[in-house]
Amino acid sequence: MAEQKEYWRWTESRWTNPDLDWKNAKIITAGVDVGSVSSQAVIMCDGQLYAYANMRTGSNSPDSAWNAFNWAIEGTGLTVDDIHYTVGTGYGRVNVPMANKAVTEIACHARGANFMYGPTVRTVLDMGGQDCKAITTDDKGKVQSFLMNDKCAAGTGRGMEVFANLLSVSINEVGDMSLKVDEDPPPVSSTCVVFAKAEATGLLRAGWSTEKVLAAYCLAMAQRVVSLLERNGVQPDFAITGGIAKNAGVVTRLEKLLNLKALAPKYDTQLAGAVGAALFAKALVEKGKKK
Amino acid sequence: MITAGVDVGNKFTKVVVVKGGKVVSKAMTATGFDPAGAANEAYDKAVSEAGIAKGDVQKVFATGAGAIEAKFANDTVTVVSADAKGAYTLFPAARTVIDVGAEEGRAIRLNDQGKIADFAVNEKCAAGAGSFTESMARALEVPLEEMGPLALKSDKTIPMNAQCVVFAESEVVSLVHAKTSKEDISKAVHDAISGRVVSMARRVGVEKELVMIGGVGRNVGFVKCMENGLDGMKATVLDDPEYVSAIGAALLAAE
After folding, report:
1. Judging by DSSP bridges, how do beta strands B105-110 and B116-122 pair with one another?
2. Which terminus of chain B has a smaller tally of CB atoms within 10 A, N or C?
3. Structural domain of residue B131, as residue ranges?
4. In this structure, how many other beta carbons lie within 10 angstroms of the beta carbon of residue B240?
5. Residue A1 pLDDT
């Protein structure tokens, strides 16, 4: 069988804050976000980001949680016993073995975005692997309202992965490549990713360039997400989290449609859920919760 | 009177020639990415098989997702009206018609004169159409035509959480890893797709007799699961179910 390159495979990463030493910290908490496509573990020292790992979710949630957690603490000398409290979140949150409590990903994303983008954030769009959430939040990162699509791959990272594979373009490059057109073509008309794939194949046969097909798909995705956002209400400041936040093709078109710039990310956008979880863990420790 | 009906579907293009209310020939080609070419090819085949010349065909009606691609047609009709006409003529007791094709599904309720009382269409989502089974067959590494018979061998009910075909594919992979048998997975797949069609049918109201048309009518697993979903109501699959829309179009052309 011919070897098929995995174009959808995005880069996994880990990081330790060189300016912090966990041994000096009073409260060490962890947030573990087991999503349908990616899993993140974040370690925080007194509410500051100390270490994280971001990797692909495997076929079972407990293993994925441990893999991300162990990778995050790798080389730090930390052990699971040093962590004062751990909150699990995400699609697989009830299956996070080291977590002392589970919190919904909506709450965690709002809280995480508040930390990552600052307290001025009022609208959070989380574009994850298998769902898409529009959240409005207050200056404390508390959820005011939300809408979500978790039924359909249109408007999610999985949909973009399908296109990356179809067009043999790395998932890290699809966004930039889609911007290499002089003018946006009409968007892909099929809602369903399965049909959109067939439509794209037809467009390629009709002589469209890969860039043009990607532009049509990124635009279709942006339009779809805008309607979700508008139903929930959009107020500035606006932040995008999740894997698709790294896709300039979708983000640029979204900003244009909304006539609103998204705040520039200072951290890996996929971390929002886990960061929020670690912050909830810190608040629980401060309230006297013991694991 | 000799007429023809052309049904340019998402996957296959079907043509029938009808003479005096009887089907005299039929032909089918894959639509692919050239629906106009597929329509021409299927039409040529059907006409030559009928042993007539194109000039003998007095009127041609086209239907289906790519109806406008059949340039030689005199007019186009909607799939719902073609379905209703075809199903009612072939089976006058029909009051509910379910048409499931590769990318679309329809539920139509007829009155006792064969007129359309209500209908619902799904053309947005592959989860209620034939492509669903196709994707799952690929994930299971089972030939498509074996999916239905395989499902009949299982009496288990495993709910699929995913609504979307794209997500369901990873769910099927997880079920395979969990050593669930292919029979049980195939049953789960057919329960899921038929469940979507059943809820669409319930929206328009289901009345006896229920007939099933469209290519998915050939899938015994789907038909069985749909009957279960409709509390055991019997579904009559019309002969050559994928041709019924084309037959309806040809009959409408003769009116």
Report:
1. antiparallel
2. C
3. 92-237
4. 18
5. 37
CB atoms closer than 10 angstroms to residue A278: 34
| Whole-prediction pTM | 0.86
Largest CA distance in chain B: 61
Taking CA atoms, A5 is separated from A164, A169, A170, B146, B240, in Å, by 11, 10, 9, 30, 41
Q: Write out pLDDT tens, residues A14-48.
A: 999 999 999 999 999 999 999 988 999 999 999 99
pLDDT confidence band for B58 (50 / 70 / 90) = very high
Residue of A130, A153, A192 lying closest to B124 (CB–CB) = A192
Contact A42, A277 (CB under 8 A): yes
* β-bridge pairing B235-237 and B105-110: unpaired
**Contact residues, A window 40-99, toward B, CB-based 8 Å cutoff:** 59
Report how far residue B152's alpha carbon sits from residue A219's, in angstroms, rounded to the nearest whole number: 43
Residue B37 and residue B15 share a domain: yes
Cβ contact B210:B48 at 8 Å = no
Whether A230 and A222 have beta carbons less than 8 Å apart is answered as no
Cβ(A172)–Cβ(A160) under 8 Å? no
Supply the CATH classification number for the domain A119-262: 3.30.420.40
Taking an 8 Å cut-off on Cβ atoms, the answer to whether B164 and A193 are in contact is: yes
For the domain that residue B44 is a member of, what is the CATH number?
Answer: 3.30.420.40
CATH number of A13-112+271-286: 3.30.420.40
CA atoms of B197 and B213, how far apart (whole Å): 13
In angstroms, the first-to-last Cα distance of chain B is: 10
Domain A119-262 in the same topology as domain A13-112+271-286: yes
A206 contacts on B by Cβ (under 8 Å)? 33
ipTM, interface predicted TM-score of the complex = 0.82
